[in-house]
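User: I've been going back and forth on whether these two constructs are worth ordering. Before I decide, could you fold them both?

Assistant: Sure. I'll take them in the order you sent them. The first construct and its structure tokens:
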Amino acid sequence: EVEQTAKRTVKVVPRDEQKESYCLGIDEAGRGPVLGPMVYACAYCPLSQRDAIRQRGFQDSKKLTEFQRDQLFTNMLNSPDVGFEAAVLSAEELSNKMLRKAKYNLNAISHDTAIDLIRRTLAKGVPLKEVYIDTVGPPETYQAKLARIFPDQTIVVSKKADDLFPIVSAASIVAKVIRDQVLRNWEFKEPGITASHAFGSGYPADPVTKMWLQRNVDYVFGFPSVMRFSWKTCSNILETDAAPVSW
């Protein structure tokens, strides 16, 4: 059974299927782009399947085509032993947090979101024993922080975790598929906006994204809320191509 809202997508493994300890992986999609959400996801499966799920085709989502990611996501939906949860942090939410007076930087947001995903999984009664996470910041510091919060779980924080651990690869696929869905189905909430959905990858160096930014900056109103106003790319364009503002 899958529950989906604007901020969360959850697929739970039924309790009667949880006959052994589980491992969980966490990864994100959309950390670097100047537009669209950042999506954090966790995926979990029985420890006995920790290595075997690699045979199902799970690998770093960036190495897969969109078609392959969608197929693997559908396979997860239909796999009784794999559960997942994704948290969608909108561009507007990221901007508000990062631009507020008491700064809340992206690393802190990432850590807190990952911690919340682990807590939510434990609250569902999933018997987690091992947790694997793609690092944000120094892995040793992050791992020690998580080990203090979750002393009953074995925590492994690593660079390239989405390559090393198939359950992290599964989480990366969930995150990427859901971010792509959000942008594909994006509805501009600002009245009168007719901007294209040809966002590209969202990364500032992407020529398609660059073109979207050039075509959709308004001299008075700037950008719609799909943009991350806390990104330097956005503020630079507003300074050069939009009306000056005096506070």
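The second construct, handled the same way:
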Amino acid sequence: AVVSTQSTGEGVLSASYHVCPTGYNFQFDSTFMYLMSGLLMLKIYQLRHPDVNPHAYTAYIFLSLTVLIEVVGVYVQTIYFWIFFGILYVVATLYFTSHMYYMGVISLDCGIFGRISHFFRTDFMSSPKPLYMDRFIFLVLVVTLNFAAAVMGVVVQPSDFPSFLLAVFLINLLAYFAYYVIMKFIHGEYPYPITIFCGVLTMVTWICALYFYFSTVTNWQLPAAQSRSKNRPCIALDFYDNHDVWHIISSMALFFGFVTVLTLDDHLLNKPRNQIRVF
């Protein structure tokens, strides 16, 4: 129900943005993309960690703050904002990766830094190797990737902040989904054929959709006359241009992606929970 609501909201706000696309109302188009990405990550995490998954109000407070930061980033493009965002980004990355590594032991309160310091000393300084090697390798890659994105934001200061923030969400979603699927296969868990079939269709449709997305025929950052010079003849039914085809194919890709995630662990429904591996 939540996923369908997010998709509907994304369709309505995307339509409102396309009526008169500008740099200021693009945030309408991207807002529900953040929500969908964040909720999909929570859904995948919840499959193996229902006891330590963030509560609904915690998740929505975080997503609300994300949208607030996006709005500020649209109107305030200064080095001070990017430094503030970079510091906040790094702190959030450290918290979420610590929460995932210790499976909820690192809670967000006044004693968080003391607990992180204690676990770092006991796990990494007194032990020859991490307690959870597979999770450790994945989270090191995630931290490296996110730190690089934070540094790039401060140094490059992209003019399109909503797209930058959306890329951060999508990269983390894809990274966690890939980790989850790889760990399933490592532990001998094989999803139903329908899940694999929809997963393959998701990849194929996203590749096709992104081809048309990057084959731009307009540019709202340019004056109307210059943007018009990029226009090309319609490619489908003598009515739909490249961007229309992007929307059509990407909507199919979203559907196949939702089916893939929602059926990912259906083959474990009749398996006792104490026999399901946690990763």
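Notes on the second construct follow. Residues 80 and 213 are 32 Å apart (CA to CA). The two ends are 27 Å apart (CA to CA).
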